């Protein structure tokens, strides 16, 4: 940045030439767009936290819009702060850390088994054990309630209950199932990150230690673990950051026993119209997110020191497990059954059973899928014959699809500008700006977007209730991934193919259209499809921003949960899981890249 | 065929980083000029400035009579309008197009009718021997084939000036020889002005009609390959050109003062092939000890120690000595390159006189060597 100022500012020519440069012009445009989509909402919500909001002026005794510490005091120091913030914070941290620990241990062992040993069916498990990561988290939550729900909630009882065993509250709701479910969700992430690092580890490093006389355990603790430390730490931090913003699981499993986390507390504040409190909570979640991800960035920088080590000797070498081969394989199989088969099977069976947990032929029915004139108050038809289901599906596809296509294209453009513009400050500010939503958990970002677009500002009308606001929020939310994909694709491409076209006489538009976009086709597909999948199964943005007219599959299924249409809700969740899973498989087929690479970039 | 004129051009990336400094260079039409220098000396930046991929910071650039880039006049002609050809070091073939489509792309942009496109593409592919790969994608070609496609892609546009960035550096040794001959042939066949960049002195020596040696953003010497080797303008050029490198002897050392008495001399240089072994104490012979002998195929490189100084000698004749033996080495004063404290070349006043002695010496050397 300093370099640019010293050279380009003193002479006007630098400025003139840069302003003629399409990359720089495009960059300025993108910077404006993202300032509005990303920066403005965040600033707006932070302002809401310290300004008197609409409707609060009599209570606070100050005029609307004036500066106040009321909300901060209320959240952090007032008598109610315990329920608003401190208890939820404690709950959030204990769930996040608990889930992280289990995921690290189980995932770490699995990663080692899959990448370094002669486990039976390694190739198959390597894919199968990743599946839980492709399923929305609350698939597991719903499966759990289907099994363990007890009498403290209304509606259909869980299978255990109807079989006569009453499950205690601690097993049915609260931290225990939440930790268990989130751990299941994050184990694949550990397998991916840790497994990749293990695979990349040069086996010559181990060999040379062995030749120098180190025992197996010395090699493991003195060579492998230190080298793996960055990957391990990074996985830990990513899990923490993600768990902080997790909404659906605590919503389903925590609320019935008043076990609030920060995200559900924020949701309560928003749905009870306490905008100021919600803003403070959202700010607090952002700060936590920022802290964890700053640690991650620092660790990744550390990790880069090790990158040069990857030599040619990174050949695949497996350690025979001996008599442990069968138990290890059984362990992997158990994990697959618990993480994939059991939840999906439970959900599916629950949608074809009239009375839960009674495995009798007469109890099975397809009514909840395709039945008509059912004996219920609302939802008289099976889910596949319900117009709301199809309109929610259409909304999901339309809104998430549009947003993903936009995000993918914008990501490629960001990559283009970042790699091409001579203005370094433009490149780095675009890079950082598009990365920002990553620091802000979805639910907080949704609250921020709401705070900016809920009312008319300047020429922009109030967008709340339109699908536009959802698309804008989704685009912004997906930019970190899309722009990283775009930047890495453009960096790999280098300048030269485009310059060659320029020398041949091609104009800028022509170069973009005939050279850049066709070459980057694969990256573009990944940059569109992966955000699409995460958008389809995402909850936190929609739960805040969607209204009945823009209901998508995820909010529809949560509403069905609220109304205790368990079978229908489970059916919808199964459909979402199918979409997400199918989409992932399709991407892998299309781009011939493993999911692992996709996640890493 | 236009000439290229660089008038006091400079390129600064920031206040600290100056890539190219105040360079004047005139490339004659039909020339096959080489920019030679170590990596990071600014030669690729020069090439990219001529192509228009970088802007000048100062100075003026002409192609023919036309001003292409001049910050002072606010003039800049963008690369697509300069009518040049540029072959990148990495070839930069478009991976999503076949060989034929790669070559055709420029012609399409010029909206040529299909018939003409086909003939011209076919012609250039025949000339470069790549017609049989027309339907293949770049990833299915070897390095040498890709290089030829990259060349063809530019040649088909019949550019007035062809710029090549390290054209042979990504090829293996035998292909490099082949392509070197090919480039020389193409220069004659297509009748273009070629400017190429390399850090490989052999490539420069064998290909170029004129060599411009660069270092740290500055032009060191411009001249024919022979000239540059025989009369290096300064110490940098003397050191950079030649393998094994020139021997350097401080003028105030024992050996230095014995060899030379010319005033202002700071450093003496003697090419390894200008040192000869003799077994008798001829007029210019110095006692020397052979430290080691390295055969390099057709020639031999000897490490000698004389008067406390290590010298390298190279010869095409099998040396009749063993490592560790004492012998004599002969350095003719007229073969010495003299440099002053600034590293600039001084004229060797013994040059004329030495001419005469030379004949005798070569015969004696020959006799002794045999």
UniProtKB/TrEMBL annotation, chain A:
GO CC aspect terms: plasma membrane
Transmembrane segments: 23-47, 93-114, 126-147, 170-194, 277-300, 321-349, 399-418, 438-456, 462-482, 522-547, 567-586
Primary localization: membrane
Pfam families: BPD_transp_1
GO biological process, one term: transmembrane transport
Domain ABC transmembrane type-1: 89-299, 393-587
Protein topology in the membrane: Multi-pass membrane protein
Superkingdom of origin: Bacteria
Keywords, alphabetical: Cell inner membrane, Cell membrane, Membrane, Transmembrane, Transmembrane helix, Transport
PROSITE patterns the UniProt entry points to: ABC_TM1
Localization per Swiss-Prot or TrEMBL: Cell inner membrane; Cell membrane
Family matches, as InterPro entries: MetI-like, MetI-like_sf
PANTHER family according to UniProt: INNER MEMBRANE ABC TRANSPORTER PERMEASE PROTEIN YDCV
Family (UniProt): Belongs to the binding-protein-dependent transport system permease family.
Protein name per Swiss-Prot or TrEMBL: Iron ABC transporter permease
Lineage start: Bacteria, Pseudomonadati, Pseudomonadota, Gammaproteobacteria, Oceanospirillales
TrEMBL record, chain B:
InterPro entries documented for this protein: AAA+_ATPase, ABC_transporter-like_ATP-bd, ABC_transporter-like_CS, ABC_transpr_MalK/UgpC-like, Mo/tungstate-bd_C_term_dom, P-loop_NTPase, Transp-assoc_OB_typ2
Any Pfam family the entry gives: TOBE_2
KW GTP-binding (keyword) present: no
Molecular function as annotated in GO: ABC-type transporter activity; ATP binding; ATP hydrolysis activity
Highest taxon of the lineage: Bacteria
Residues in ABC transporter domain copies: 4-241
Entries under SUPFAM superfamilies matching the protein: MOP-like (SSF50331), P-loop containing nucleoside triphosphate hydrolases (SSF52540)
Keyword check for Signal: no
Keywords, sorted A to Z: ATP-binding, Cell membrane, Membrane, Nucleotide-binding, Translocase, Transport
GO CC entries: ATP-binding cassette (ABC) transporter complex, substrate-binding subunit-containing
Record SMART domains: AAA
Protein name: ABC transporter ATP-binding protein
Organism: Vreelandella populi
């Amino acid at each position: 940045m300093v370099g640019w100022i010293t050279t380009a500012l003193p002479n006007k020519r630098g400025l003139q030439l840069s302003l003629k440069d399409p990359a720089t012009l495009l960059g300025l445009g993108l910077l404006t767009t993202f300032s509005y989509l990303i920066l403005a909402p965040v600033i707006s919500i932070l302002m809401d936290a310290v300004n008197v909001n609409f409707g609060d002026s009599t209570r606070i005794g100050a005029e609307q819009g004036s500066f106040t510490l009321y909300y901060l005091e209320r959240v952090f120091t007032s008598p109610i702060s315990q329920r608003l913030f401190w208890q939820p914070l404690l709950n959030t941290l204990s769930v996040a850390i608990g889930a992280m620990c289990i995921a690290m241990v189980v995932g770490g062992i699995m990663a080692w088994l899959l990448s370094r040993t002669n486990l039976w069916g390694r190739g198959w498990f390597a894919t199968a054990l990743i599946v839980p990561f492709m399923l929305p988290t609350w698939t597991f939550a719903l499966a759990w309630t289907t099994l363990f729900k007890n009498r403290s909630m209304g509606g259909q009882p869980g299978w255990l209950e109807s079989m006569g065993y009453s499950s205690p509250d601690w097993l049915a709701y609260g931290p225990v199932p939440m930790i268990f479910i989130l751990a299941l969700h994050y184990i694949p992430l550990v397998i991916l990150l840790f497994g990749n690092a293990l695979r990349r580890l040069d086996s010559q490093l181990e060999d040379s230690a062995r030749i120098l006389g180190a025992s197996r355990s010395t090699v493991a603790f003195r060579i492998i673990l230190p080298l793996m430390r960055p990957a391990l730490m990074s996985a830990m931090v990513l899990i923490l950051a993600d768990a902080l913003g997790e909404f659906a699981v605590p919503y389903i499993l925590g609320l019935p026993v008043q076990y609030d986390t920060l995200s559900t507390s924020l949701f309560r504040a928003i749905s009870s119209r306490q905008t100021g409190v919600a803003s403070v909570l959202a700010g607090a979640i952002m700060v936590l997110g920022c802290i964890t991800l700053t640690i991650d960035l620092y660790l990744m920088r550390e990790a880069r020191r090790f990158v040069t080590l990857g030599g040619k000797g990174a050949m695949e070498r497996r350690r025979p497990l001996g008599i442990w081969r069968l138990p290890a394989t059984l362990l992997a199989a158990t994990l697959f059954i618990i993480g994939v088969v059991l939840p999906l099977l439970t959900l599916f069976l629950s949608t074809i059973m009239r009375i839960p947990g009674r495995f009798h032929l007469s109890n099975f029915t397809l009514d909840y899928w395709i039945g008509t004139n059912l004996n219920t108050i609302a939802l008289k038809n099976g889910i596949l014959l319900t117009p709301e289901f199809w309109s929610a599906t259409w909304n999901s596809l339309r809104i998430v699809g549009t947003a993903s296509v936009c995000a993918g294209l914008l990501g490629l453009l960001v990559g283009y500008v970042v790699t091409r513009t001579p203005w370094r400050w433009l490149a780095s500010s675009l890079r950082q700006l598009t990365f920002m939503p990553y620091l802000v958990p979805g639910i907080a970002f949704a609250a921020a977007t709401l705070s900016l677009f809920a009312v008319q500002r300047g020429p922009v009308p109030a967008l709340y209730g339109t699908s536009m606001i959802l698309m804008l929020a989704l685009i912004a939310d997906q930019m970190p991934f899309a722009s990283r994909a775009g930047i890495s694709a453009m960096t790999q491409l280098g300048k030269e193919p485009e310059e060659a076209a320029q020398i041949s006489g091609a104009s800028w538009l022509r170069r973009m259209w005939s050279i850049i976009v066709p070459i980057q086709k694969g990256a573009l597909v990944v940059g569109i499809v992966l955000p699409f999948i995460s958008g389809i199964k995402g909850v936190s943005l929609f739960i805040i921003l969607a209204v009945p007219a823009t209901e998508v599959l995820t909010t529809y299924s949560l509403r069905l949960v609220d109304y205790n249409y368990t079978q229908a809700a489970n059916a919808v969740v199964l459909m979402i899981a199918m979409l997400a899973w199918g989409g992932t498989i399709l991407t892998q087929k299309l781009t011939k890249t493993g999911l692992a690479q996709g996640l890493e970039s | 065929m236009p000439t290229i004129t660089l008038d006091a051009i400079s390129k600064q990336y920031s206040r600290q980083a100056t890539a190219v400094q105040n360079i004047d260079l005139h490339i004659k039409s039909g020339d096959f000029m080489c920019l030679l220098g170590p990596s990071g000396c600014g030669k690729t930046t020069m090439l990219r400035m001529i192509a228009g991929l970088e802007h000048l910071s100062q100075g003026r650039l002409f192609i023919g009579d036309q001003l292409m880039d001049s910050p002072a006049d606010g003039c800049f002609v963008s690369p697509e309008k300069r009518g040049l050809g540029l072959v990148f070091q990495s070839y930069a073939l478009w991976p999503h197009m076949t060989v034929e489509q790669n070559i055709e792309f420029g012609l399409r942009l010029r909206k040529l009718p299909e018939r003409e496109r086909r003939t011209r593409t076919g012609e250039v592919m025949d000339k470069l021997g790549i017609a049989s790969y027309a339907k293949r994608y770049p990833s299915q070609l070897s390095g040498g084939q890709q290089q030829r496609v990259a060349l063809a892609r530019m040649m088909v546009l019949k550019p007035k000036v062809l710029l090549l960035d390290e054209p042979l550096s990504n090829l293996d040794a035998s292909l490099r020889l082949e392509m070197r001959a090919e480039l020389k042939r193409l220069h004659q066949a297509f009748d273009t002005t070629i400017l190429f960049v390399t850090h490989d002195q052999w490539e420069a020596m064998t290909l170029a009609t004129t060599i411009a040696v660069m270092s740290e953003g500055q032009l060191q010497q411009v001249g024919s390959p022979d000239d540059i080797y025989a009369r290096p303008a300064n110490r940098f050029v003397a050191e950079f050109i030649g393998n094994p490198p020139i021997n350097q002897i401080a003028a105030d050392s024992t050996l230095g003062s014995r060899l030379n008495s010319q005033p202002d001399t700071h450093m003496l240089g003697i090419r390894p092939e200008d040192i000869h072994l003799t077994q008798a104490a001829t007029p210019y012979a110095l006692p020397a000890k052979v430290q080691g002998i390295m055969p390099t195929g057709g020639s031999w490189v000897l490490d000698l120690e004389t008067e406390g100084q290590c010298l390298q000698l190279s010869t095409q004749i099998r040396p009749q000595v063993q490592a560790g033996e004492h012998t004599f080495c002969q350095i003719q004063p007229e073969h010495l390159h003299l440099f002053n404290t600034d590293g600039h070349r001084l004229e060797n006043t013994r040059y004329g006189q030495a001419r005469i002695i030379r004949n005798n010496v070569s015969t004696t050397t020959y006799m002794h060597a045999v």
